[in-house]
């Protein structure tokens, strides 16, 4: 135990609580069914302040994603996309976080973890996922087909604005390729 009065006197400053992470404000899909979520998705749109994306947005290619449920909790994500005329497959594993609908994507090296939240999905036509690395957040819209309805696109744009991103950093992917 500390001596009496240590750290309790006036004039002693308390450290302010850390600012709330943007992702902490995002609710995960309540009725998320991983077996229904599994399957093929198309990346329809991304909202991100990533400078690389801004500089290379003219080179976006149609991107397909296959979600497989492992061990009833882990997700295996296989992304297929074309880069410089060649098809590439990127494999990732989303590990379950403490709350249902939240996942952790571990990268190589310090500070390379990405927090992932399945924010909204109807399992059959669209899914909105949030990604946060450090203090940066991005939002992705996936569809079971490469096109989604205007209603879903509007919903996505509302979610993008709700986390402080704008139309200027929202990119739609081509439906061909």
Write the layout of secondary structure elements.
Layout: H1 34-37, E1 39-47, H2 51-56, E2 63-70, E3 74-83, E4 86-96, E5 102-105, E6 114-121, E7 126-133, E8 136-143, H3 150-162, E9 170-172
Antiparallel strand pairs: 1-2, 1-8, 1-9, 2-3, 3-4, 4-5, 5-6, 6-7, 7-8
Keywords:
177 residues, mainly beta, 8-stranded antiparallel β-barrel, globular, Calycin, complement binding, signal, C8G
Report on this model:
It is a single chain. The protein has 3 helices and 9 strands, in the order αβαβββββββαβ. It is mainly β. It has an 8-stranded antiparallel beta barrel with strand order 1-2-3-4-5-6-7-8. The protein starts with 33 loop residues before the first helix and ends in a 5-residue tail after the last strand. GO terms for molecular function: complement binding. Residues 1-22 are annotated as: Disordered. It is found in: Secreted.
CATH uppermost class: Mainly Beta
- Class from secondary-structure proportions: mainly beta
Assigned CATH superfamily: Calycin beta-barrel core domain
Q: Strand arrangement, largest sheet? A: 1-2-3-4-5-6-7-8
Major β-sheet profile: 8 strands, antiparallel, barrel
Shape: globular
Beta-sheet strand percentage? 35-45%
Number of strands: 9
**Span from first to last CA?**
67 Å
Summarize the amount of helix as a percent range.
10-25%
Unreliable parts: none
Examine the coordinates and then state which fold CATH places here, giving the name of the CATH topology.
Lipocalin
Specify the number of helices. Answer: 3
Give the second-level CATH assignment, the architecture: Beta Barrel
How many separate structural domains? Answer: 1
N-to-C order of helices and strands: HEHEEEEEEEHE
GO biological process, one term: complement activation
Keywords: Disulfide bond, Secreted, Signal
Main location: secreted
Family: Belongs to the calycin superfamily. Lipocalin family.
